[in-house]
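Hi R.,

Here's the chain you asked about this morning:
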Amino acid sequence: CFELAKRNAEVLRQLVQHVIETWALEQPTDLCIPCLPHKVVDRALDQVLTLAEKANVLLDSAGVLPMPAVSARFYEPPRVLVNLIANGVKFTPRGGTVSVSISEENEKGIGVVRFTVRDTGIGIALEDRQRIFREGVRLDATAGPTESSGIGLTFCKRAIEEHSGQLRVARTPGQRTTFSFAQPL
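And here is the predicted structure, written out as tokens:
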């Protein structure tokens, strides 16, 4: 009975989280604050640490060094990173690694910080690269309702596009997936 209640509570928690994410997509974009990229990464890693430990997946943040502040809505960069890192953990076999790095770059004459999440998981097939950003799409057909609602990558893509950015995905089928996005300095 306790296990059933625990599973039901987790389903409800996931549903509430997805409602919050959906609501966040529709909020005004003028509530931006400065965020330190390495602190954003630290916050996101803290939120997925237990998931990674349970999956026996190493979280590597060696590529995260202090950088100048970026401007973003306070909840977006950590939420985007949490989604990307959690997906990496979910699709990485036991003993694999999810790496997070940040780098200062220049895109079209604008200084940006690029956040990159790379896993050693199963990769994404070429035909699925655009489909994964559609609401409700789940590549893992065996995932239960507590594992995926198909809204995480939709949220990530929209949140990044709201700041004139682009969520990039590079894949090597059967080997790894790399997601990245940039925030202006």
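One quick note: The longest helix spans residues 2-25.

Cheers,
M.
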